Amino acid sequence: MPRFAANLSMLFTEVDFTERFARARAAGFEGVEYLFPYAYPSDLLARLLNDNNLTQVLFNLPPGDWDAGERGIACLPDRVEEFRAGVDQALDYARALGCRQLNCLAGLRPATLDEDTAWQTLVANVDYAAERLAAEGITLCLEAINSRVDMPGFVLDTSGKVMSVIEELDGSNIRLQYDLYHMQIMEGDLIRSLECLLPWIGHIQFADNPGRHEPGTGEINFSNVFAAIDGMGYEGWVGAEYRPSAETSDTLGWFDGWS
Ligand SMILES: O=C(O)C(=O)[C@H](O)CO
Ligand SMILES: [Mg+2]
């Protein structure tokens, strides 16, 4: 049975971030993920996880200046030092939170940066990060994010591009983060793709499309997709990363039967 995690950057935003852990537990989740832990002391987050008997499933490496629109710095040649410092910071949090997977956001390619340089920088940074994480038994995820609607210019916008990085590096702890929402926009054919890519998938996330709301608000047949994920023996977590179209607790109908 898929293990579902609540994404606390998107769910339960009716309450302050630190109160969302208890809300997730009360709703039946056993794991949580969120964009970034860095604004909070790690001991506070560790206590919230412990008090609510929750697993920290995933968070992202520092993304650069998120509020200014940056979406990762891994492809930027003039930010390599900052990228490496971010790996240190993320590892400190991962240790404190017992988190076994970190996601590396590839970043947006500026018009002034040529594709080849962006790609070589990305591959070298992923290689560095994967090696640092491997020493601690942690997996590095690379998420393919749609460049049609949400992140124009995002360097890794297809599962094929993520697979190219994985193949180029041959890193045993590098995995694809397969977000059903982004992949529905870019590629479709979700169940067949999940089956083909299964050995390389480290984490799955979902939202319906269009709108990025809860299952049932768009075009994806989630009963079938979740049943397929269950049937193919996927052992990782599945993160609910959607914008609730109503009070979060009123959007959890999809969870019935899985919790
Ligand atoms: O946008 C997404 O799908 C995400 O998972 C986070 O925003 C970045 O990892
Ligand atoms: Mg995602």
Automatic annotation (TrEMBL):
Q: Which residues cross the membrane?
A: none
Coiled-coil spans are none
Q: Name one GO biological process term.
A: glyoxylate metabolic process
Which Pfam family, giving just one, matches this sequence? AP_endonuc_2
Q: Which molecular-function annotation in GO is an example for this chain?
A: hydroxypyruvate isomerase activity
Q: Which UniProt keywords apply?
A: Isomerase, Pyruvate
Active site per UniProt = 143, 241
| Top-level taxon in the UniProt lineage | Bacteria
Query: Is the Acetylation keyword given for this protein?
Result: no
Q: Where is the Xylose isomerase-like TIM barrel domain?
A: 21-255
The record ties this protein, via NCBIfam families, to: OH-pyruv-isom (TIGR03234), OxoTetrIsom (NF043033)
Protein family membership: Belongs to the hyi family.
- State the name under which the record lists this protein: Hydroxypyruvate isomerase
Q: Which species is listed as the source?
A: Marinobacter salinus
